[in-house]
Design a protein that fits this description.
The protein is α+β, with helices and mostly antiparallel strands and 345 residues long. It has 10 helices and 6 strands, in the order αββαααααααβαββαβ. The longest helix is centred in the N-terminal third of the chain and has 46 residues.
Amino acid sequence: MTEESSKPDHTHEPVWTYRGYELHAGEFNTAMVHLFRAEVSRANVWRQRLDTTTNWAVITTGAVVSLAFTQAEVSHLVILLNLLLLTIFLITEARRYRYYELWSSRVRMMETDFFAAMLVPPFKPAPDWAEGMAESLLQPEFPISELEALGRRLRRNYLWIYLIVGIAWLAKLSLFPKPIRLISEIVEHAGVGGLNGELVISVVAGFYIFLFLLTFMTIGLRRASGEVLTDYGIGDINFEKTFSKDKKAWFKNPRRRQQLLTLIVTDNPEQVCQRIMEDMQRGATVLPAEGAYTHTKRTVLMVALTITEVPQLKALVADVSPSSFVVVVPAKSVFGGGFMPLEEK
């Protein structure tokens, strides 16, 4: 037997087994490719919905402005009503943008931590990228807030549409029902119904001030993963360091996976500890305990986990020690031992 033939063949080792089924590396890659295509398709659909909402806003604005300037008897109130329609479209588009970011964040995660790792070895994916992907699939949450979504859609499209509407409104007040000679006449023309012009102008001015504040105060919110270059700083990356053995992917999951502290009260601490270390690659801290009323001696095992590992732990404990019970509590931060590093490098 030659030295090469004596080496173990890892090409046919299963990635995982479940109820007699085995998933091999080739099947795993195929499944990931299909998942990638599905998430790209979802992102494209929601991207098209974003464009549709913007088109509604543009068409509505064009129609209202044309009506206001071609018909002298039409009140400037129609332009103010268009502001209300634009706001409804903006809120709708911001909600759609949050959905788009959910699918886009998954696509970005696979691009940077799966495909890039295969294309440029020995570039290593982030150690928790698969956990982050699994958590996003099991418990999907919007990766960005409503404020960030509103701010981004305002800066991209709607602020300019609002400015056009505002200019059109001022032009309508200045030209109809007759051209003004003094600035004060605009206040006169702004009155509508039982409302005087000063109140109407104050409300509109306050609305625009709020828009500008929302636009520029949300610039610092940068959790969107679907933006190109600006949110990743790729232009400043030192690729020699990025692809070194000790480096991880530059992509940061917009949502840190939930960390938990698990307390296991059991009569078989040795067997449970051994299975946790062998099957889950997690450590367990042993805490002796005594029942308050029964005075029975039992053992409490303290294990730090992520949310996607809880089902595996429950199945493991049920198999080894069915009489045990498990308490799962949230942990604010867990450092070391496969979680966040104790020291930042």
